[in-house]
Amino acid sequence: MFEIRKDITDANTPVYTISTAAHLLGISIPTLRMYEKEGLIIPYKKESNQRRYSQNDLYRVKCIRETINGTKISIQGIKHLLSLIPCWKIKNCSTDERAVCEAFISHDKPCWMYPHKNNLCSEIPCISCEVYTKLSDCKKVKETIKIYL
Amino acid sequence: MFEIRKDITDANTPVYTISTAAHLLGISIPTLRMYEKEGLIIPYKKESNQRRYSQNDLYRVKCIRETINGTKISIQGIKHLLSLIPCWKIKNCSTDERAVCEAFISHDKPCWMYPHKNNLCSEIPCISCEVYTKLSDCKKVKETIKIYL
DNA sequence: GATAGTTGATATTTATAACTATCATGTTTG
DNA sequence: CAAACATGATAGTTATAAATATCAACTATC
User: Fold this and answer.
1) Nucleic strand C within 7 A of Cβ A24
2) Per-residue pLDDT reduced to its tens digit, A94-107
3) Which entry of A15, A19, A127, B138 is 20 to 30 Å from B122 by CA?
4) Quick check: A76 and B73 in contact, CB under 8 A?
5) Do A138 and A64 contact (CB within 8 A), yes or no?
6) Where are the domains of chain B?
7) In this predicted structure, what is the pLDDT of residue A9?
8) Do B71 and A81 touch (CB under 8 A)?
9) How far, in Å, CA of B21 to CA of B3, rounded?
């Protein structure tokens, strides 16, 4: 227990329980749950509602903590930053879709934190959406924006 | 003393001393100097090195404080946010210029906080550069980015 | 079916960012 | 040429974000 699994080839496979993840990261369980509540991470959830973390999830949390404790950007700041990811470009939203999409309009939290109902994002769960998966390091938002500028 | 001057038509004219500005904003003088040190504001400086604040400067500080105290984004977060303003697009930098420009490469502070030597930005002081002047409210970075996306 | 680990929620602790007070020195103003 | 206000710098205070501890109820595992 509490060991990094090297038998898993896919870094996106959710294998670690919350206690293992917390141990590997050197943080407490409530902290992990807080990051999730704030929308900084979306762990996989089993049918029973239990969380399972992948290797990429761990990396993601590592980046979050570097940003909070190293760069001194607050959680609210990170959320604001993540809201700048041009999801409407990545997903190629139409003008009509943008006009009614909170993720396009607002800028206080990442797109995956808004309710997805009647737009094209409701087709795929956010945990497997490229907008979420392709940007594990919140310090790389600028890079991402540059691509579409 | 300590009164908003209504005789000044140009909101960019630097008229208020630091004590007047602090009083009008309801904050201390060191706080104003801190915001400046962090690159969140560039007050006009007289030949004697004394600061003079314009009406727009006051508005800018008001927005900074809303962001810190209301939105709960830290100063480091605001700096990071301001670094995302696509100055290279606004100023129409060449590929060669971008390649050596810290403002293009880095993302920890606004472009006007980097030393400007051998690029086209050295022609104009940052205080009168449109990249700085056109975005008084740091909460409107997303709007600005959208224009160029 | 007993032990270990999970869930969300609330209460508490801790670390520190944001802000202020105060300093000796320099500048402005009547 | 005083009085008032500026300067940068340091030291101290305060507010609170980030992290943790603990809870009763629920789920997993052997």
Assistant:
1) no
2) 999 999 999 999 99
3) B138
4) yes
5) yes
6) 1-72, 75-149
7) 65
8) no
9) 9
Does position A119 have pLDDT exceeding 80, yes or no?
Answer: no
CB-CB under 8 Å, B145 with A86 = yes
For the cut 90, the answer to whether the pLDDT of residue B116 exceeds it is no
Give the CATH number of domain B1-72; options: 1.10.1660.10, 3.40.1390.30, 3.30.530.20, 3.40.50.150: 1.10.1660.10
Number of Cβ within 10 Å of residue A115's Cβ equals: 7
Chain B positions contacting chain A at CB under 8 Å are 71-74, 76-78, 80-81, 83-84, 86, 89, 107-108, 139, 141-142, 145, 148-149
pLDDT in tens, A40-87: 999 999 999 999 999 999 999 999 999 999 999 999 999 999 999 999
CA distance B98 to B86: 11
Sort out which chain B residues have CB atoms less than 8 A from A111's CB and list them.
none
Pairwise CB contact (< 8 Å): B84 & A149? no
| Residues in Cβ contact with A32 at an 8 Å cutoff, skipping those fewer than 6 apart | A18, A21, A22, A25, A41, A51, A61
